[in-house]
TrEMBL record:
Gene3D superfamilies, A to Z: LCP protein
Pfam families linked to this entry: LytR_cpsA_psr (PF03816)
The family this protein is said to belong to: Belongs to the LytR/CpsA/Psr (LCP) family.
Domain Cell envelope-related transcriptional attenuator: 86-233
Domain of life: Bacteria
Positions with biased composition (Low complexity): 371-389, 398-426
Disordered, as annotated region: 38-57, 345-433
The protein's name in its UniProt record: LytR family transcriptional regulator
InterPro entries named among the record's database cross-references: LytR/CpsA/Psr_CW_biosynth (IPR050922), LytR_CpsA_psr (IPR004474)
Amino acid sequence: MNKFLKYFLIFLSLLLVVVPVIFAVILLKSSQGAFEHSYNDQDSARQSNIRESKVDPSKDPISILFLGIDDNSGREKNGQSTEQSRSDAMIFSTLNTEKEQIRMLSIPRDTISFIPKVGYYDKIAHAHAYGGPKSSMDSVEATLNVPVDYYVRINMEAFVDAVNELGGIEYDVPYDINEPNTDDSGKIKVKKGHQNLNGDEALAVARTRHQDSDLKRGQRQMDLIKKLFAKAQKADSISKLDDVVEIVGKNAKHNLSYKEIKVLATSYLKDDIDIKSTQLEGKDDYLNGIYYYNPDIKNIQDTSNLLRDDLELPKIKDKLEFLNQRVIDFYGTLIPQTEIDSSLLRKSQNDSTSNDDNDENQASDNKSTDSDNQINNNNENSQQSDANQYENQRDDPNQQNSNQNTQQQIDPNQQQPVENQQPNAQETPTNQY
C-alpha cells in the first residue's frame, strides 16, 4: 500500500490519540476483517438533524466526532459494558477539502450540555453512557448547533498498545504525573521534563488534569497529535504501521463505510493540509453541588460559526438559536437533571402560536420559582450525603441516573414537582435545537 495512504490512516489515528485513544481506518488488505469488526452499519444511515440530506465525503465538507472511551478491563470485571462507559474525552473535527484544512475542537468532558436522549442537562461525557455514540453526537449538536456527520470510538488500551508498537514518543512533560494505569490496578508515574514515553506514560500525560484543568489537558492532547504524527512518518516506523492498524481495528467502532474512508484517504494525502485546533472558553461552575465546565455562550456562538463556515453552512446571528441561551432566559440558569419543557425549544419564551402556548407562557413566571425550589430540594435530598460523595460520584452518570429516580423533577404540564418522574426523551424534539 502507498506509504502516504498509511500516513493518512495514522493521522486519523492520531486525532483519536488525544481523546485519548487511537482510531485506525482498516484499509490494508490484511486488515479487512478488522475493518468489518469496527464498522457499525446500524449507525451508518444516521443523518444529522441539522442537515437537510446526508453528506457525501467525496464532494461535501464533513464532520467527525472522535470519542475516547474509558472501558478498561478493570471496569469490565466490575460489570461495566462499553455502551455504559463515559467518553473520557471528545474531539469534534471538520474536514474541508476545498480549504485543504482539518479543524479540531477539544470539548472538555465536564462541559454542561443538554442530553436529548434523557431530556435534561448533564456533563457531556455522560451522554455516551446514556445512549452510546448517537447520544454523544446528538448532545454535541445540541451544544454547538453544528451537524455531526460521523463518529469514531476507541478504547484507551488500543492507544497504549499502538504507542508501544511505534517505540514510544518524545514529549516534554510539563510536571510530575501520578495517574492510574489502563486497568486501574496501579499507578503510572512520569517525571517532569523531556523524555521518550511508552504507551502507559503517554496515556497518563494525555489524561491527567489534576494539576491544571480540562482546557490544559485538551491542549496537551492537541500537542500529542503532532508529536505522534511526526513519529509515524519516520522511516523506522513504516514497517510497524500494519501492526498498529491491526491493534486499533480490533478496538474501534465507527459509522464510516469502507468507501467513505477511501474517499477521505484520497482527499487528505496532500502535504500542505492545514491542521487547526481550538477550544471552548468558559468557567468552572457548581450546579446542584456538582462541578461542571460552563462554556461562555458568546464563545459557543463564535465557535459554532467558525465550524459552520468550515462546513459551508450559514452563520448564526442570533444567540437564541442556542438552547443554552433560551434555557437561561427562561429559567434564569441551567438546571442539571431537570426535565426541559419542550416550549424552551422555541427561539423565545414569548413566542406563542396558540391559546395553549399563551397559557404556558403565562405560567412561565412561576417556573423560575419552581426551578429554584427544585435546586434547593435537590441539594436537600440524598443524591450524595456530603461534598466528598459528590466528588466521588461526579463522573458516574449511571449512579446519577439512579439517584434521579428519587429526585423531584418539574412536570411542565402541572408546574408542580412530581416524585420519580423520568425524563421522556421522546417528547423532546431533536430535529431542531
